[in-house]
Amino acid sequence: MGCGRRGRLLAPHRRRQFPLWEGIRVSGSIEYTGTDSAETEPAGTGSTRTESAGTVLVTGGAGFIGRAVVDAALGRGWAVRVLDSLRRDVHGDEQPLPEGVELVRGDVTSLDDVRSALVGVDVVCHQAAKVGLGVDFADAPDYVASNVLGTSVVLAAMTELSVARLVMASSMVVYGEGRYRGAGGAIQPPPRRVEDLEAGAFEPVDPTTGLSLEPLLVHEDADLDPRNVYAVTKLAQENLASAWTIATGGSAAALRYHNVYGPGMPQNTPYAGVASLFRSALERGEAPRVYEDGGQRRDFVHVRDVAGANLAAIDWTADHPRSFRAFNVGSGVVHTVGDLADRLSRYTGGAAPVTTGQYRLGDVRHITASSARIHAELGWRASVDFEDGMREFATAPLRAAVR
Ligand SMILES: NC(=O)c1ccc[n+]([C@@H]2O[C@H](COP(=O)([O-])OP(=O)(O)OC[C@H]3O[C@@H](n4cnc5c(N)ncnc54)[C@H](O)[C@@H]3O)[C@@H](O)[C@H]2O)c1
């Protein structure tokens, strides 16, 4: 049962009543979708547990990943409420949320909005964030407000309303350049030098020997090394969640997603992921432009699998009070950015990719995670094969363009 609020009250406990939906625009029916019917099992769940008859609040539930989480939660019998500000810089004219899902249009930085959205909630799945690399450093206050202040407000309101279970979206960006094997063993190299990038020498080298390094899979216990503002805020979100579990006895799982792709990805905005940028180029009849030499190693994980990982983590929080745990979420199969461009060109029948040799400062060369922990502890494993996922994604609808 999704019963975080019953019998597991946080101390010190302050319960206040808030008028439901006061001052908040709510659309959609307040009727719940069949609470006990687990008609569709989301892909990649891997969990044998059946959780039912609870209410989950999905912050950012109108977004790319949030919508997939909403669908997966409905399929597992959860009543679903969404808190989303529908940011103008990420949303165009879009499909409404599924029938029976309550939408609270509000901001995670507003205590009143979050309090209202939390009434009657058992578990929070916190996806809302300002995402991507942004345009320039002037974006920093906006990242910090949405992601760091926003998470602190969500946690404060959860404490006040005795909601003790959190799953939050984190990212592989917390690891920085990833992990490599050099002459002296495993190392995390410093940022690549501009002179090397200018010369087309893209592979990180061992700072002591100057020789090439062998990329390894990153485990959750690796040193964290956020290298841009977005990454700093994702790590701060994790740190806040961890501090909250210590202070309140709550349970928090941080899911460090790899590169997520799939239907509903945002189109060509400064915040879109590389898969969506390539897709958008192909739709315009242009070739995907691949930075560096296309050899950057990544793990592309399908959005339905990521949603399944969230459901498995929601189950985990029911049994792990006073715990914070981070889990990598990847497909477990390494590909390159060049592979991605190649498959999307092939499956759309579009122009062949162009490898530009250009680079972006702050980009990491290789980052691939081990998803062994989430498989061992949560029973989750990705189920969408890269070729199948790319074939589907090549023609799947993207999120409406921002006006
Ligand atoms: N897409 C990826 O590859 C990826 C990878 C790693 C981590 N993540 C994380 O996954 C989560 C979801 O990302 P996404 O790709 O679906 O992004 P998205 O932009 O599609 O969705 C984010 C949603 O949050 C909402 N939002 C933003 N700021 C808000 C605020 N202050 N208050 C309320 N709502 C707000 C937006 O309106 C949007 O609907 C984020 O936390 C992101 O950091 C995404």
From TrEMBL:
<protein>
    <submittedName>
        <fullName>NAD-dependent epimerase/dehydratase family protein</fullName>
    </submittedName>
</protein>
<dbReference type="InterPro" id="IPR050177">
    <property type="entry name" value="Lipid_A_modif_metabolic_enz"/>
</dbReference>
<dbReference type="InterPro" id="IPR036291">
    <property type="entry name" value="NAD(P)-bd_dom_sf"/>
</dbReference>
<feature type="domain" description="NAD-dependent epimerase/dehydratase">
    <location>
        <begin position="56"/>
        <end position="330"/>
    </location>
</feature>
<dbReference type="InterPro" id="IPR001509">
    <property type="entry name" value="Epimerase_deHydtase"/>
</dbReference>
<feature type="region of interest" description="Disordered">
    <location>
        <begin position="32"/>
        <end position="51"/>
    </location>
</feature>
<dbReference type="Pfam" id="PF01370">
    <property type="entry name" value="Epimerase"/>
</dbReference>
